[in-house]
Amino acid sequence: MKLNNLLGVAAAVGISVIAGTAQSESFRAATWNGANSPNDVFLSDFADYTREATNGGIDFEVFPGGALLPARGTLEGLEQGVAQFANITAAYIPAKMPVDFITADMSFIAEDQMALAFAKTEVTFFNQQMQNELSELDVVFGAGFTIGVYNLICGFEVNTIADLAGRTIRTSSDAQVGYADLIGAVSVNAPGNEIYTGIQRGTIDCTTGTALYLTDFFQMHEIAKSVFMIPLGSNANGGYYFSQSFWEDRTPEERSALLHAASRATVKSMVEWGAKTESAWRVAREAQIPLVQPTSDDLAALEAFSNQFVADLPANAMENRGIEDPSELVQAMITAYEKWETLLADVDRTDIDAITALVDREIFDKIDVNTYGIE
User: Fold this and answer.
1) Do the Cβ atoms of 235 and 173 come closer than 8 Å?
2) Do both 56 and 178 map to the same domain?
3) Which residues of the chain fall below pLDDT 70?
4) Is 333 a domain residue?
């Protein structure tokens, strides 16, 4: 999947209906996240939009909660055709997707979830280093996403940052690992579906996580004893991918329909996320979970760490992950994120139609569906 294959005009603008579809084909979409989680909702929306756009010709059944593919086995499941569309969390397979992991690291500096989601999507489609990595895997990128701004959700009551020293914190990016080291904590790696029991049993003291970890994702409002509101960026980690064989078997018109269905489902997900975040904080307050604010010194130390982390990221990634110099990728993420902050400043962030038109214009309409993802 070469970068020049992405250039051109897509076969259709928006989600247009493919006329004359004679027979429906059924396929599988999967997420390890639970039923009714944002990932499950995204896949259901994607399936609906695809069904509409193909006049019923392509029908996806959605399998949430790891019923079809586990978190660490999603890539292999797509490559083997167990599912045809699924979300991959690159943090769980860093050896397979070390370049993608750079975008998760860069998420640490982001405070605008929607801008980051679209920046990640754009960079993955159009950055050569990202596409080179995918060319070694039997999957085709379809859309990116991010899950909100991270804080520290703990199974004990945190009063100050000093209370975190020596505690175990579940992390999901190198930046989060570095921050845990900075405050004297011990980072651990665990799939999201093991967080609840880990904190419940005391094998994990805290997890980095968004407000929706308290509700839609993991229902942690049932066991959390405090949230330390230090803003640890977001996490544009992996994304949604098609099986290579499934993608190559589609017509250009079908590929266009699939991409534009993914575009609209992504926008809808990001629009709904804001409202769900506010609702999650209400649930936390109703459960009387303390939301502990960091001090100005805590924030200053975090900013200094973030700046140094980004400066050191290319060299550290080359040394520790064995990848080629990612300096251009790091800059591409910064540029795209700033671009999307600017573009979204002039748009009603609750208007799904307007934002979808913007995302299609800037990203999805530029993909040549005759060549993209075709080996």
Assistant:
1) yes
2) no
3) 1-22
4) no
